What we know:
Structural class: mainly alpha
Number of domains: 1
Distance between the termini: 53 Å
Number of strands: 4
Radius of gyration: 19 Å
CATH topology: ABC transporter involved in vitamin B12 uptake, BtuC
Number of helices: 11
Amino acid sequence: MTVALFLQYLTNALSLGSLYALIAIGYTMVYGILRLINFAHGDIFMLGGYIAFYCMSLFVMPWWAGFITSLGLTGLFGVCLERVAYQPLRQSPKISIMISAIGASFLMENLATVIFGGRPKGFMVPEIFNQIVHIGSISFVTISLYIPAITTILLVVLLIIVQKTKTGMAMRAVSTDLAAAQLMGIDVNQIVSFTFGIGSILAAIGGIMWSLKYPQLNPTMGMIPGLKCFIAAVIGGIGNIAGAVLGGFLLGFIEIMIIAFLPTLTGYRDAFAFILLIIVLLIKPSGLLGKNQIEKV
Length: 297
């Protein structure tokens, strides 16, 4: 393999890893607060892409207005989903909330099939995201450059919110001990809703960027990416934002490099995510950056 070809694959790995990292952050934020795996997160990712699509095609909005509308509506949907499907079960056993999350995921996929139709739709890619850039012997589409840049900016903003603001302090308190946070006067419902809203907006951004990179929409498009991003969050140490980013980049890098060096295994690229998950959990069950925790009964 030539140096130029390796750099080409490395660019693709950086772009894919950034997408995985962005979506994995949503998983890890919700788990960090509620110890809940939001299995509907991948379907919120799908919803963000569809809303942006219809804003541009049906309501003829400029692409930037359609994207902003998608983020707002998807974030609101995430808050409503938490209020309806998760909040009433907060005092119930964890398995009840998990079953509710799985039910919400299947409900969203089937409703999307009924409302949007099962036939794949082509996502309209604005010219600004679809230009070919040449750097020496390396060529890539501009969206591959925007994805890691946007992911980095969002990660910095999120870390500032979590570490430097009163809301972030409350989020960390709820994550440490929900009952004690309530006794200290923290509005837990508001913090949880805020977390779901932020997580859903990140999922919508991921869904839009995924649609720009792979411009085809279908009701189950969030299933495999959502599952892989959950794996990325677990590999990095679920509940740890930096761990989710590390897991996303690691998963994207391994997927692309396997295709680069072993092209005959291209059809099995999804399986390597699960193999990597098993290996990491066997070596470090809490994830690469996770900490061992005793589960409260």
